Amino acid sequence: MEYFPAALEKLVEQFARLPGIGGKSAQRLAFHVLSLPEEEALKFAAAIVDAKKNIHCCSICQNLTDQETCTICASPKRDQSTICVVAQPRDVLSFERSREYNGVYHVLHGVLSPLNHIGPDDIRLQEQVKRVAAVQRYNGDYGGRADLK
Ligand SMILES: [Zn+2]
């Protein structure tokens, strides 16, 4: 790696930090980026910055969104009283691809793993507990659609 210019070495190091990318793959990706026309390389960099600036967790379900609430939570067509609890945002995509599920989601952003010292406070479990309590309270009081905030 010391044979590369410093800027290229930094780029390789950044790619090597990505999950599943080893040293050789990081070099291949870095060389690919260098081979891109400048406009394409800038689009790539801008996409990273844009995603990092604008993507955050939905205030209701903790799924990734660029709005206050995600499109699933905001949809009046979804069954708000049925919540599918998933570990990661990519799990929502899997369910949505099935086109069979019409409820909403709660994304924990992890799973309990006592052996790895990941407990209830390390995932979005408290948000889920509050949400279920809100649904139960609303359904119990009004028997209708829950206000999930
Ligand atoms: Zn949501």
Overview of the molecule:
The protein has 149 residues and is mainly alpha-helical. The chain has a two-stranded antiparallel ribbon. A two-stranded parallel sheet has the order 3-4. Helix content is 49%, strand content 11%. The protein has helices spanning 6-16, 23-35, 38-54, 71-74, 89-98, 125-142; strands at 56-57, 64-65, 79-86, 103-107. Helix 1 packs across helix 2. It has six helices and four strands. Mean pLDDT is 87; it is low at 142-146. Bound molecules: zinc ion (ZN). Zinc ion binds next to helix 4.
Briefly, what is this?
The protein has 149 residues and is mainly α. Helix content is 49%, strand content 11%. Zinc ion (ZN) binds at residues 58, 60-61, 63, 69-70, 72-73.
Small molecules bound: zinc ion
Task: Please give the count of helices.
Answer: 6
The parts where pLDDT drops under 50 for at least 5 residues are: 142-146
Topology, number of strands? 4
Biggest β-sheet: strands ordered side by side in the sheet: 1-2
Protein topology:
Elements: H1 6-16, H2 23-35, H3 38-54, E1 56-57, E2 64-65, H4 71-74, E3 79-86, H5 89-98, E4 103-107, H6 125-142
Parallel strand pairs: 3-4
Antiparallel strand pairs: 1-2
Task: Fill in the keyword field for this structure.
single chain, 149 residues, mainly alpha, two-stranded antiparallel ribbon, two-stranded parallel ribbon, 4 strands, 49% helix, elongated, binds zinc ion
